[in-house]
Design a protein that fits this description.
162 residues, six-stranded mixed beta sheet, Immunoglobulin-like, binds copper (II) ion, five-stranded mixed beta sheet, 1 helix, 11 strands, alpha+beta
Length: 162
């Protein structure tokens, strides 16, 4: 009679356990490389504001485009049911634009079509995104979070002129 007490594991099961552990290590490595080698971070609020008063004073009282230096802009966008203020901005091609987006009421979304800009717009928080427009054209920004009856009509446009 054997005194061996180790548990018998079927070879198939053992192999799949090894595959799962290797996958988990691979995912953990990918997260570590993304975070530390490429500096990719989970988006965090740039700033906190009071949604009840954000439209009364400060930069979102007069939302729109500010030119910081030639080719460098800030765009303050206020989302509210059911429109974006401003509805349109115009910049020349090659411009680097930093968007500061916040909401005066409920939760909205801000997605700039044909780009990788896409962020939640949460009342009380400011979402910050930067993009360089290398191609001329019209880029619509749309609300991507259902915010009520007028949601589907909630959009604006960035005109990038040659
Ligand atoms: Cu909305």
């Amino acid at each position: 009679m054997s005194t061996k007490t180790s548990m018998h594991i079927d070879p198939y099961e053992r192999n799949w356990m090894i595959v799962s552990i290797v996958l988990l290590l691979g995912f953990a490595t990918a997260i570590a490389v993304a975070a530390f080698a490429f500096g990719i971070q989970v988006p965090s609020p740039e700033q906190r504001v009071d949604p009840r008063t954000v439209a009364e004073s400060g930069p979102w009282a007069e939302p729109g485009l500010r030119e910081l230096s030639p080719g460098k802009y800030e765009a303050y966008i206020l989302a509210r049911t059911w429109l974006f203020q401003p509805r349109e901005i115009t910049v020349p091609v090659g411009s680097k634009v930093t968007f500061y987006v916040t909401s005066a009421d409920v939760q909205h979304g801000f997605k700039l079509q044909n780009t990788n800009l896409n962020v939640q717009v949460i009342p009380g928080q400011v979402s910050k995104l930067t993009i360089t427009f290398d191609e001329p054209g019209d880029y619509n920004y749309i609300c991507t979070e259902y915010c009520g009856n007028g949601h589907a009509a909630m959009f604006g446009t960035v005109h990038v002129t040659p």
